[in-house]
Amino acid sequence: MSDPIETAIFEKLSAADPKGVGGKSIEPAEVAKALQPEQWQRMLPRVKAVALGLMRQGRLTITKKGKAVDPSSVKGVIRLRLPTEAETAAALAALPTATADDDDFA
């Protein structure tokens, strides 16, 4: 089952960045307004939370003034864009790796 917020984020990004090279960005408010035009302010925290999850998976980059940022330490206006290949590789490298000791089903 697909998350409608995630779907809306990637639809807006594909319209802004049709080549998918991580150049163009969107505002989280654009996604919130597309999902709930009348009460988009209520939707905004959920859009940002989904964006944070996508960033941690290496599927999205959160930026401020055109530079990738750590959203937990930034305040103010942020933007969302597709990650570059280097950003995706860095995000995936930062994920914890599974070890044989982690297997609870053995």
Automatic annotation (TrEMBL):
Coiled coil: none
Pfam families assigned: DUF3253
InterPro entries named in the record: DUF3253, WH-like_DNA-bd_sf, WH_DNA-bd_sf
Protein name: DUF3253 domain-containing protein
Organism: Brevundimonas vitisensis
